[in-house]
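During the no-cost extension, the postdoctoral fellow (Dr. R.K.) reprocessed legacy sequence entries with the updated structure-token encoder. One reprocessed record is reproduced below for audit purposes.
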Amino acid sequence: MKALNQLKTFQRILAEFPGNVQLSKFLPGFFRQNKQMGSTDRRVASRLIYNYFRLGNALPNLPPEDKLMVAEFLCNTQTNSFLQHFKPEWAACIAFTLNEKLEMVKVAYPHFDLHDVYPLYSRLSAGIDTPEFLRSFFIQPDLFIRVRKGFEQQVKATLAKAEVTFKDEGNNCLSLPNGTRLETLFPNQHWFEVQDYSSQQTAHYFKPQRWENWWDACAASGGKSLLLHEQEPDLKLVVSDIRESILANLDERFRQAGLMKYQKKILDLTQNPDFIMHNYAFDGIILDAPCTGSGTWGRTPELITQFGEHRIEFFQRLQQSIVRNVVKYLKPGKPLIYITCSAFKAENEDAVDFMVKELGLQLEEMKVLKGYTHRADTMFVARMILGETTESRVQSTESQ
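Re-encoded structure tokens follow.
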């Protein structure tokens, strides 16, 4: 009876889900309207709907209920009563490897094709292992935190006392089970930042020097700036974003981290910012560019089926427009750190090609951060240096 009720709840969520928002924003409202659901009911309902979307566009002609059974089989490693009720023969094989389970699904549904999970796989960046990347969508990413220096023992002791399993990833990065209630474990404590593993790895490409002037051009809530500040606290920092509300979140995070000296600007970097930025010249610029976010869809699998391929070209043009307006404030011989949370070549390697060929930047190093090997997001980072004779070329592109 319980499994039947869980299935009915899944069907209601799927029917009411509008498809143009993220599940993480839709589900809390759904649960508020169904207050009879206990915490276990909400947890199971969330698991079922998220797992369903992890199938992406695979088995498109299968009824949703049957697709859900496939998803539950592939995404779980421990027996649960739902699968035992509806698919006991699969529940008995729940501990099989993912490859073994994929073969079983293929036998049951000969039309199943792993490539349909993420149909834009042909657009992936070079170096991404396509089969491994696709299989990663059946594994929920971990929750990652970056522990502030000096609080390592307190954080680990608190997690151990609460019997929360964690792994030390090095460089003050800990991985935890997704869904860990950090706000309950650490009330009013500011010993760490929640930040994905791959996002933390981008810091290796900053390499700031003391007293330099740096600009975090698309700062959002300031995660990259906090990494920069931890590496070199004696920087002159400018942060900007087009969204005033998200910069308010940045202020709070900076306050908690003790980062008090910085300038903040609200800028639309698709437009020429000279009227505000004309007096600035920077020793380093971090451009965490707006992108499809396709490297993070393991956390938001509902976006796989919502996304239209034409959006890749939209973001590619947006990135080129922003880069043109940012790089002219970079001092010759200094670095631009270009970052995306995209897995698409058009936003990654092709963007670097554009900056090298059109803006005269010199590529020092670039890397796809393969989060799928760490139960993390997949990202891209490139460190480029502005050539000594590039300024005139940057200016000439503005008139094109």
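Residues 392-400 have pLDDT under 50 and may be disordered. The chain has three domains: 1-117, 143-194, 198-387. The remaining legacy entries will be reprocessed before the final report is submitted.
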